[in-house]
Structure formats: C-alpha cells, structure tokens
Amino acid sequence: MPVRPQPKDSVAEHRAKSGLNANVAVITLSDSRSLDTDKSGDLIQSLLERNSHRVLVRKLIPDSRNILRAALRELQRDKRINAIITTGGTGLAPTDVTIEAVHGMLDKELPGFNSLFMLLSYSEVKSAAMLSRALAGTMKGKILFCLPGSPKACKLAMESLILPELGHILMLMGS
C-alpha cells in the first residue's frame, strides 16, 4: 500500500516552524491564597519557563469580575504580552466568576480546549470532569487560557494542551 504524502501545511510542520516563545502573564484568582502559597501559579510559571517561554507578569487577585476585567484590560494594552493564563475561579461556587468575567471579552472562543480538557480529565476524576469550565480564546490579539485552581488540573492542561500548541497558536495569530 503506498504511503500518502503529508500535506505541506500539516500541523506537525506548523509546529516545527513556529518555534515561537511566548511572553506570558499568569493571573491567579483566589480569596484564600497568597503569592507564597500559590502552587498552581508556581507550577504554570515553572512549566512555561522550562519550555523557553517567559513570564513577564505574575499577579494574584481576589475573585472579582471587576478586578479581573481591569487586569485583563491592562494586559491587553501591554504590547510585550502575547499570552495570558488565569488559574482559579472556574468552578461552580458563587465566588467563581472567571468565566463570566472573561466570556464577553473574547474575540474568538476555542471550544475544543474545554472539550479536550474534560476528555483528558475524565480518566482521573471520572464524571466530575463535566464540571470543568476551563476556557480558551483570543482577546485583542492575545491568547487567553482560563484554568481551574487545582495544581493537578493546571499541570494536565499545561502539559497536554497549552505547551504543545502555544508556539503554533502564536504563529497563527501573527505574534
């Protein structure tokens, strides 16, 4: 059986060509953590830096729609930043407002991000995976990922979804 040639613009080729490193802002939303106890933010920063990306901004803010929106508007204006990752505030508790705050600010949503995150989470947390409200999309020329506050969930999203595609996404966005 003959081997079919790969199309010239295959995903693997795009990934290989991209090699772009992101300048990232990491925002943790929490009313109970401090920068000293922010394991999820630390993990995200460590994984980014180990993969040649730079964390230029690191913030911990309270669970507040207005404060998050203000922080995101500030980052939209920061020309150095081309990716934003939030952690926390994606659950079902009344104080979890990340998704509601961000949704109206997105230019384009990547619904496959949450679908894949739930699929990958299922093997670990079974039916609780359906509670995920992880979100990704573009916002004023920047890619935005909203992750749960759990370090395990952040590790899964970073290693399985974000890090393999971040350079490719930046290339597609013209960063």
Comma- or semicolon-separated keywords:
6 strands, 175 residues, alpha/beta, 6 helices, Molybdenum Cofactor Biosythetic Enzyme, Chain A, globular, single chain
Reconstruct the topology from this structure.
Blueprint: H1 11-18, E1 23-29, H2 39-50, E2 54-61, H3 65-77, E3 83-87, H4 98-103, E4 108-109, H5 111-125, E5 135-139, E6 142-147, H6 151-173
Parallel strand pairs: 1-2, 1-3, 3-6
Antiparallel strand pairs: 4-5, 5-6
Helix pairs in contact: 1-6, 2-6, 5-6
Give a short overview.
This protein is of the alpha/beta class and 175 residues long. Helix content is 44%, strand content 19%.
Number of helices: 6
The helicity comes to 40-55%
Q: What kind of sheet is the major sheet?
A: 6 strands, mixed
- The counted number of beta strands is 6
Q: Could you tell me the mean pLDDT? A: 93
C-alpha termini separation: 41 Å
| Physical arrangement of strands within the biggest beta sheet | 2-1-3-6-5-4
Label the overall shape: globular
Describe this protein's structure.
This protein is 44% helix and 19% strand. The chain has 175 residues and is an alpha/beta fold. It has one domain: Molybdenum Cofactor Biosythetic Enzyme, Chain A (3-Layer(aba) Sandwich), CATH 3.40.980.10. Strands 2-1-3-6-5-4 form a six-stranded mixed beta sheet, with helices on both faces.
